[in-house]
TrEMBL record:
Pfam family, one: Peptidase_M20
GO terms for MF: hydrolase activity
Name of the protein in question: Arginine utilization protein RocB
InterPro entries linked: Peptidase_M20 (IPR002933), Peptidase_M20A (IPR050072), Uncharacterised_RocB (IPR012166)
Amino acid sequence: MREKYSFDIKKTLYEFVSIQSDTGTKLEKNLEKYLLEFISQLSCFKEKKDFGTYRLNQDRLDREVVWALLKRDSDDTIILLNHHDVVDSYDYGEIKSFAYEPDTLRDKLKVFNLPQDVIRDISSGEWIFGRGSADMKAGIVIQLAVLDKLSRDKNFNGNILFLSVPDEETLSHGMRECTKLLLKLKTKYSLNYKLLINSEPHEREKEDEYIVYEGSVGKTMAVVYVRGKKSHIGQIFQGLNPSLIMSKIISNTEMNSELCDIRLGESSPPPSWSYCRDFKEVYDASIPEAAGGYLSFLTLERTPKDIISGLKKICEKSFTEAIKQANFNYKKFTNSNDELKWRVNVKQYSELYKAAKEYCGEKIDDILKETLDRIEGDIKEGKITIPESNFLIIKTLLNNVPYTEPIIVIAFSPPYYPHISNRDMKLSEDIEKLSEFIDTIARKDYKNVVKKREYFMGISDLSYAGLMDNDEVIPYIEPNMPLWNEKFYTIPFEAMKKLSIPIINIGPWGKDIHKMTERVYKPDIMSQTPWLIESVIRYLLKDKGDK
């Protein structure tokens, strides 16, 4: 029988949702502790202690990956991956205190002026509401149910490695560190990783269409710093306002569909700016000295090499447009044909660092270390964010090179998520036919159609299961990321290359992720999703145990 679990999935999900585990806070450790205790009570781990925690390196909150291994005689292993952090609940406003109580929250939501589909889902009784219900505590409980059920099947002869990571919603520190754990466990237990299954929620277009993903979108965050030429507003043409240049860059990039990445019939959303401002700290009658911002490119095949070279061309074009506009207005103002003597100057961060090194020698590294030490303290105290701190580093370098004219510097900021796709891996025949197999099971047992999507667009930890196009990633990310440092941010590229694990996302239907009406489809968590995951595991491990 399909429904054969030793614990109540719905009740367990309610328990997990009730434990607040806001990302980037000590609250994450609450769920780590509870999860470890929960695993220790499963029958298969009462005697065989193949479970534990793996502490993240250089983590100020001492967070840990929780892992558990069901080990049988085979080497073939399926990985079940999830994350136990959730976004905060401030968006719930006056009902924030009920965000972790699904039934009470559902009743409280009834008084709000909500969209019709939400009202319909509240009335149906088929949806569980609550912060983290869909993203992704449902996935944790589903995977635990499958792990426990297969552990009770004495004829099951494969291995299942359960991994629950922190920090997915922020910098994916948990998964980046988990790549090292995967290599350690692989060696210690002689494991052959066949497939990594994530259980992030999917969004359906039709009620009877279940969505699975065999890839995950990448994310590259670019930083743009513009230093203009400061002047009094009464002598405006003696200066060049960096805000003018930034406005041109934003105009040429924001929601520009020509910058979408298109592959395998799917398209990433266009880039968008998350932050932009001038860096003037006090009021005076002068234009800002500098301005900057950061934007995200979602990628399907475009590499950091492509992005930084493409962004440099856009910045050069924008700089030219700004100079042209300044000259047009200068000529009108002076009633002459004279032109301002500005020139286009755009550099990558790596080029700026090289120039500073040539000019200052080893001293520049000491100067940067002092800056980074100061930034570290400011980040801990919440005075500055990680993306914003890039501007301080760039400013430090510019203050130590003999540049006096306006300049644009472009760089990369954490977090970086490589895109990943099974299409770029050498796959076994059973992995190649995996989506077809899942579709067959879903049609037979649930009368649903399974639609395969090439890329999960929600950005996920799947990105770190392997590394594609490493020659166009590593040489461009590391030297152009000001915060690339053991204390702040690194990516285990070598570990990722060694892993190269095929991936799939099989998760429940979820709606309104990161919103106050976040919810997950009860029939999926109670039956369909755990059954599909179990069926995939048995199919890949050639298991014919007690189904």
